[in-house]
Amino acid sequence: MYTIGIDLGGTNIVAAVVDSEYNIIAKAKTPTAMPRKPEEIFNDIAKISKQAMMNAGVTINDIQAIGLGTPGTVNKEGIIEYANNLGFDHIPAKDMLIERLGDVPVFIENDANCAALGEAYAGCGHGSKNFIAVTLGTGVGSGIILDGKIVSGVNNAGGECGHMVINVDGVPCTCGRRGCWEAYASATALINQTKAAMEEHPDSIMHELAMEEGKVSGRTAFDAMRRKDAAAIQVVEDYIKYVAAGITNLVNALQPEIVCVGGGICNEGETLLRPLRRYLESERYSVYSEVQTKLMKAELGNDAGVIGAAILNTVQ
Q: Of 83, 243, 280, 299, whose CB count within 10 A is highest?
């Protein structure tokens, strides 16, 4: 038997048929094409789910469960209570999927939690039951798995680690607070930090690199650092320090087996992870423990969400 995993994103909707070993058998995708009515989006979700089944050579009778990962907050009844970037407000997602795809068990969860679940079971976690995934992207996404279960809290909004404060009265965050980890450790924050350093250092190599690329990106400071640019070296050192502060907080609070770091910044590989591990080793509370948290790079890339969604039925 197989399951269907669906990743509902702001840009694309992806559906995949996944087997019991967490392998993707076939996929299909379509643009989300926002803004649109929820009914139109769910029509497309059903359409690409059927296309994925056709690509895999299976029918709905071969599907034991359907899982959907979505932005926003989802309650236990399968209602997307709120997803601001999709314009969703109390959308009965579970019922809408059953209506379009048939009476198959449906499970719905926040997309960051699905990505964490995918990495924990099928990616760098290799079946880890105590696992935290952190994604350094436009914001700082995160998902927490404890004792094999997703931590969602009393109101299904748990696991938002990007909005813990690491600098009281620090820079403003999009959530309305000041000093959030996201405001310092996201790719957006790194770009802002890079731009600020470039303004302060007009002779920095970062100007040349940004001109070649046509923009300032998350790579600009790292690439200039490798060319021994002093301003870029400082940007990268400060950024890694901010990322490490949040990771160390999570380790000290929860002591997971693995913290998985994903997002585009992770393409830096050991250039990022090696100094992060040094910070963690020097600042973690469990300094004398024989078993320590491992810090690893995400393995599944964009497939983490659909695989995690496909195995929601095993953890809910």
A: 243
Radius of gyration over every alpha carbon of the chain, rounded to an integer in angstroms: 20
Residues 117 and 146: beta-carbon distance below 8 Å: no
CB 119 within 8 A of CB 260: yes
DSSP lists the bridge partners of residue 136 as 140
SS3 at position 69 = strand
Q: Are 262 and 136 in contact (CB under 8 A)?
A: yes
Residues 6+ away with beta carbon under 8 Å from 234: 197
Distance CA 314, CA 64 (A): 11
Q: Which residue is listed with tokens 């990616």?
A: 123
Integer Cα distance of 203 and 290 in angstroms: 48
